[in-house]
């Protein structure tokens, strides 16, 4: 471990892993709530075009991917909001067109030999430069600030858009903001786990935390904790075993999900048994009428965690 930390590139890799481990689940929990778990995968396809443009114009592929992915996310949200029956077809063409365009642009760029899509498809965390780390930190800070600072509003629109709209929440603006934050997260994580696996880091830690938690706040905190742990463990394991970091991180996240699922089953049975032993909850609301004189103390009930 000491030897590993003596290398500058490993220090940058571990810091990048922590940042992505926090950022990806912080956005992913809202996508899971909206049943849009594969949205990150589609954005990863679109981001390939940005990477290709970065190679063509010899600029930062990360920032170019941010621009293209944000535009793609806004387009996706507008298509979703319209509820058009052909929306799925339009999104499919957007996703696959982004992938094809990215590969075509890279093949025609002057950097095609040295800088292929491989490191962006599967991640290349050990090649993260100081500039890349600064970009990941800046974009990650924005994502975390938005997803945590607007947690109540974002949770409301994910649960029931109509109710949120009635209460005065700017639903359309927040939907667009959430889509943009998801797009930024994809580009932040692509150097760590790759564009093809980024959706897994946004979804699997959330699904794992849901096995043991019973509230949104606990699930969000638990998913971020799982994301950080598997990201650090994946990078460390990839260094020790000389394997790609992206697949290692994702497989560890899936393993954590499997363990949590195994633990959740007996916990659920125990919780059900405790509720049965406590007996039915007694309502202490007095009914109208002079004959109602029952003052029996209600039996204790097992309340749900908030």
Question: Which characteristics define this entry?
Answer:
single chain; 306 residues; mainly alpha; ABC transporter involved in vitamin B12 uptake, BtuC; 13 helices
Describe this protein's structure.
This protein has helices at 2-5, 8-33, 39-56, 61-82, 87-108, 118-122, 130-149, 151-159, 161-166, 171-189, 198-210, 216-241, 245-278. It has 306 residues and is mostly helical. The chain is globular and about 70 Å long. The protein has a domain at 2-197: ABC transporter involved in vitamin B12 uptake, BtuC. The longest helix has 34 residues, at 245-278. The chain contains 13 helices and no strands.
Oligomeric state of shown chains: single chain
Task: Please tally the β strands and state the result.
Answer: 0
Main beta-sheet annotation: none
The percent of residues in helical segments reads: over 70%
List low-confidence stretches.
292-306
Q: Could you say what the CATH architecture of the domain at 2-197 is? A: Orthogonal Bundle
CA distance, first residue to last residue: 40 Å
CATH homologous superfamily designation of the domain at 2-197 = ABC transporter involved in vitamin B12 uptake, BtuC
User: What is the top-level CATH class of the domain at 2-197?
Assistant: Mainly Alpha
